[in-house]
Structure formats: structure tokens, C-alpha cells
């Protein structure tokens, strides 16, 4: 049994699904983020600062603006847990259902059951202290979950790295495949503009740029 008093956080630890659930239901970890894959679990306890929050909001907002202007159906979830019983759990910074015909979960107060609902189309992880893991084991996790696109935001430099996922494998992309026409270079330019501009200015620039596509 894994003890909550001695459990190491912010690293992957070998554990059974039952041990994972025991900790996930522990009030001590109410504000933590939980991941489980292939017999390993990770509990993230690191505080999320303004760098993480600002960049997560900016990238997520750019995605929804693009989808809105291109009349693409989209539903966004923030810090939402997805669970495939006995196998996998993940809680990305932002996740998106994109397109029509998807089985989108209703608003509930428990992890989304991936045996009942579709996985998100696009997942975003913002990495500052967790970047190596976001590009490593988490990427392997998302390759096996049915997610079609995975974006990692390197918050220390303000740059998004994108991966397309198909048949359990991922490859780096520079243009989104689930949002046709959206270049990651535009997202990265928006991230750089945050250093000198407020969100309303960045949003106006994004709208002007997307309308030219």
C-alpha cells in the first residue's frame, strides 16, 4: 500500500490502480493533479504561478477564437480529469472537443469516464517545472488515450510544441491537423506579444490574423 504521508509527489511511482484511487480520494490531495498510466502514477503538487496561468489562458483563448472565426464546433474544459477505469487517468491544463459527432460529457463533479464518453480531441499541457515529463512519459500516455493532438507549452520560453497522434504514435507538427489552417507560429507569436501587450490587444491581433487565413 502507498502511504499518503510518505508518498513522493511530482514523479512517476509504480502503483496499482487501487492504490492510485486511494490517494485520488484522499482529502490531503484535493488540490493536486493526478495521472496514471501503465501501472505508474504521478501526483503533481507544485504551485502554479502567474506564468503558468497567463500562458495557459492565452493559448486556450487563441484556440477558441480560431475555432469561432472558422465556425468549427468546440467545447473547452480546464483542469478536468479523464479516467479509463483500471488503466489511465489524466488531468491536462486545458482540453478541447473539436468538431461534430463527438460524445461530449455533461457537467459532472467526478472524472470523465472514457468508457462512456469520447476522449478530448486536443490536449494542452503547460510545462515550466514539468516540461521534461510533458515531453516524455505524458506524451506516451496521450498516445494511448485516443487524443488526436497534444500541445506542450514550454512556459519558460513561451513556445508551443505540437504533436499529432495516430495509431498510438505521435509526430511533431507545425500546423494543427484538428484545426486546419492554424499555424503554431501564430500561437507562439501571441505568446511573445504577452510580454508587451495586454490580452485585449493580443486578441485583436489574433482576430485580424485569423481573418486573413
Strand arrangement in the largest pleated sheet: 1-3-2-6-5-8
Number of individual domains: 2
Biggest pleated sheet: 6 strands, mixed
Helix content: 25-40%
Structural class computed from helices and strand pairing: alpha+beta
**Which CATH first-tier class of the largest domain would you pick?**
Alpha Beta
**In the CATH classification, which architecture of the largest domain applies?**
Alpha-Beta Complex
CATH superfamily of the largest domain, called what? Answer: tt1808, chain A
Mean pLDDT over the full residue set: 94
Q: List unreliable stretches of 5+ residues.
A: none
Instruction: Kindly estimate the percentage of residues that lie in beta strands according to DSSP.
Output: 25-35%
How large is the radius of gyration? 17 Å
The rough form would be described as: globular
The helix count comes to: 6
> What is the terminal separation in angstroms?
55 Å
Order of helices and strands: EHEEHEEEEEEHHEEEHH
Counting DSSP E segments of at least 2 residues, the number of strands comes to 12
The CATH topology name of the largest domain reads tt1808, chain A
Kindly describe this structure.
With about 210 residues, this protein is of the alpha+beta class. It has two domains: about 1-45, no CATH class; about 50-210, Alpha-Beta Complex (tt1808, chain A), CATH 3.90.1570. The protein contains six helices and twelve strands. The chain has helices at about 15-25, 50-70, 130-135, 135-145, 185-195, 200-210, and strands at about 10-15, 35, 40-45, 75-80, 80-85, 90, 95-100, 110-115, 120-125, 150-155, 160-165, 170-175.
Amino acid at each position: 500500500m502507498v502511504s499518503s504521508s510518505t508518498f513522493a509527489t511530482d514523479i512517476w511511482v509504480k502503483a496499482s490502480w487501487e492504490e492510485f484511487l486511494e490517494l485520488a480520494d484522499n482529502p490531503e490531495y484535493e488540490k493536486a493533479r493526478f495521472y496514471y498510466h501503465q501501472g505508474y502514477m504521478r501526483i503533481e503538487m507544485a504551485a502554479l504561478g502567474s506564468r503558468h496561468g497567463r500562458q495557459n489562458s492565452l493559448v486556450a483563448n487563441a484556440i477558441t477564437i480560431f475555432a469561432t472565426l472558422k465556425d468549427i464546433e468546440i467545447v473547452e474544459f480546464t483542469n478536468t480529469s479523464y479516467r479509463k477505469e483500471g488503466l489511465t487517468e489524466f488531468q491536462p491544463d486545458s482540453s478541447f472537443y473539436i468538431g461534430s459527432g463527438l460524445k461530449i460529457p455533461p457537467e459532472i463533479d467526478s472524472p470523465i469516464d472514457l468508457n462512456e464518453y469520447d476522449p478530448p480531441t486536443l490536449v494542452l499541457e503547460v510545462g515550466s517545472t514539468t516540461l521534461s515529463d510533458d515531453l516524455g512519459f505524458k506524451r506516451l500516455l496521450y498516445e494511448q488515450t485516443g487524443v488526436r493532438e497534444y500541445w506542450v507549452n514550454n512556459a519558460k520560453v513561451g513556445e508551443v510544441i505540437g504533436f499529432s497522434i495516430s495509431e498510438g504514435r505521435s509526430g511533431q507538427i507545425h500546423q494543427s491537423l484538428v484545426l486546419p489552417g492554424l499555424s503554431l507560429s501564430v500561437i507562439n507569436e501571441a505568446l511573445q506579444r504577452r510580454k508587451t501587450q495586454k490580452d485585449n490587444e493580443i486578441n485583436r491581433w489574433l482576430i485580424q490574423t485569423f481573418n486573413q487565413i
